[in-house]
Amino acid sequence: MKRFKYIIPVLIFAALWCAQALAATGSGLNRLLAEGHRAINGWQTEDAARIAAEIEKEYSGEPLAHYYLARFEFENGNYVKALEHLEASGGEIPVEKGGAGFEPYLKAAYENTRDFRARRSQHFEIRYKPGREEIILDYAVETLERAYTELSSDFGYSPSGLIVVEIYPDLSMLARATGLSMEALKTTGTIGICKFNRLLISSPRVSLLGYTWRDTMSHELVHLFVSKVGDNKVPVWLHEGFAKFEELRWRKAPGAELKPSYESLLSRALRENKLVTLEEMHPSMALLPSQEHAALAYATVQTMVQFLFEKKGYGGLRELLAEIARDGNLDHAFKKVYGFDTHGLQEHWKRNMRSRGLREMPETWADYKLIFDQNEESYEKSEEIQLKRKRARNYMVLGKLLKDREHPAAAIMEYEKAVSIEGTGNVILQNRLAQSYLDEKQPRKALEALNQVVDLYPGYVGTHIRRAAAYMALGEANLALPSLAEAVGVNPYDPRIWQMTLEAAGALSQQEKSAEAARALKLLAEQ
Q1: DSSP states of 153-181 as a string?
Q2: Considering the domain boundaries, does residue 223 fall inside one?
Q3: Reduced to 3 states, what is the DSSP secondary structure of residue 271?
Q4: 328 in a domain, yes or no?
Q5: Residues 278, 288 contacting (CB under 8 angstroms)
Q6: Do the domain assignments include residue 507?
Q7: What's the rounded Cα separation, in Å, for the pair 362 and 425?
Q8: Strand locations in 340-433, DSSP E?
Q9: Sign of CA dihedral 374, 378, 380, 381
């Protein structure tokens, strides 16, 4: 019996020591998990990576550790590793234990990209489906790298590691990746989103007429910068304001003016007191009731950030983001940096906008609307492109009828009658007139018609293609190439672009450009 007298205290001591050790282990892991999930939530990639390395070294067998590592690898675009860790974790983890509910997005990301290839540049990994999307890779790299350089300077910050960009050939893939419905995407014209520490971009092919996809890539990259600099505490409306204000930085100086259609929407909304409120923009622009509402919202927040920029430049904008990152108190941040809260911002901004004499355009073609569910034939018959005045509309219809029956000279007469009533600001009418001029071997008149609308509606691909055709007809291949490059930035899958590029590059003995055009035509022919 004596020997048990000593064994029992030893067992009790061992049990207490084990319990304390386990508690210490749990405490250490829980602390790291809390820090790690907080870093991921704030898009602080470097901190999340440091914590992931420590967790993997010290607690690799713990289910909660595997769950964190699954989320970390997902946020870094490593879907296979993320799925392996998720399986090892035993599945979904309750939110109070650090769960984030990312599992459906991980599975969608894996399914979306399992057949993708990757193109790497200095700061980006662009993932794409082999085929047509290969046409835009060089342009995507150029856009993103230029934007990265300018944004790093503007924000005083450069993200580390490669930024993952996924290009989806189908809009449904964007829906699966983000959890947004197809209805929401089409209703608001949402074709790109920055989420889960990467850029998710729809191919220009998802819209009948394409869209300004290079600006969209830059726009989404701005979101990534804002999320990281602002510790992911910046509200949606301000996020979008930064993104719209900075989206052209890859090709223009800061402080770019509103495009005319946005300016017109904003002017009308201010006059009629029908602005989209900041509250309506929450939790996402993609949930607004129409593409027109979304365009007006973007015009609103872009000019708000422009207003702030004019007050204190990039120094003020950087200080604002730093203050928001500290505690997330928006009104406090605005008061400290600019001397007014968010309500004061809106009042100052309204007065400023009303003093600027914003222009209103006639309601013609809404260039902010993307066409998702129509083919070319149904779009040509749609009311959206018809002229508002009945007589002008009748002349345009008759002109198209004559054009289709190969009577371009007679079509010109009818189109010119429509222009005399409607004016020169309708992009559809001007393009139809220009095409008839081209058919009649009158390229200078075609250019005159197109130059009336090219700056008003830079996102209409037909204008750029016909301008290039006019320059080619005039023997000015060197002027055709810039117009063709603009067309690539809207709808790079139109074979007319590459056929003319091949001809223009050949005329100028630009072998590299000729080879690029030949490759594009080959890819288009294979699809």
Answers
A1: HHHT----SPEEEEEESSHHHHHHHH---
A2: yes
A3: helix
A4: yes
A5: no
A6: yes
A7: 8
A8: none
A9: negative
Tokens linked to 391:
């007589």
| Cis, bond preceding 482 (omega within 30 deg of 0) | no
Which DSSP symbol is given to 62? -
Q: Tokens 């009533």 identify what position? A: 421
3-state secondary structure of 214: helix
- Of 49, 76, 102, the one marking the end of a domain is 102
Asked if 37 and 68 count as a contact pair (C-beta separation under 8 A), the reply is: yes
First to last CA, the chain: 87
| 396 shares its domain with 329 | no
Question: Which residues in the chain show pLDDT less than 50?
Answer: 1-25
Residue linked to tokens 């919202």: 297
CB atoms within 10 A of CB 83: 18
C-alpha distances in angstroms, 85 versus 46, 68, 88, 171, 207?
20, 8, 5, 29, 37
**Residue 4 confidence (pLDDT):** 37
DSSP state of 257: P
For 304-329, the three-class secondary structure string (H helix, E strand, C coil) is: HHHHHHHHHHHHHHHHHHHHHHHHCC
Same structural domain for residues 45 and 124? no
Distance of CA 491 to the CA centre of its chain: 15
Q: Give the structural domain span for 437.
A: 382-526
Cα dist. 131→19, 203, 490 in Å?
59, 12, 18
Q: Judge if 268 and 326 occupy the same domain.
A: yes
Q: What is the pLDDT of residue 6?
A: 38
Query: How far is it, in rounded angstroms, from Cα 455 to Cα 191?
Result: 23
CATH code (residue 64): 1.25.40
Cross-strand partners of 167: 201
Q: Distance (Å, rounded) from C-alpha 149 to C-alpha 364?
A: 37
Q: For residue 166, what are the β-bridge partners?
A: 127, 200
Q: For residue 202, give the 3-state DSSP assignment.
A: strand
What is residue 92's predicted lDDT score, i.e. its pLDDT? 64
Are 336 and 393 in a shared domain? no
Rounded alpha-carbon distances, angstroms, from residue 310 to 71, 304, 306, 323, 357: 40, 10, 6, 19, 17
pLDDT digits (tens, 9 = 90+) for 44-95: 999 999 999 999 999 999 999 999 999 999 999 999 999 999 999 987 676 6
Please say whether the beta carbons of 163 and 123 come within 8 A: yes
Rounded CA separation 196/504 (Å): 42
Using N-to-C axis directions, what is the helix angle for 427-439 and 408-422, rounded to 10°?
Answer: 150
**Structure token digits, residue 445:** 């008149």
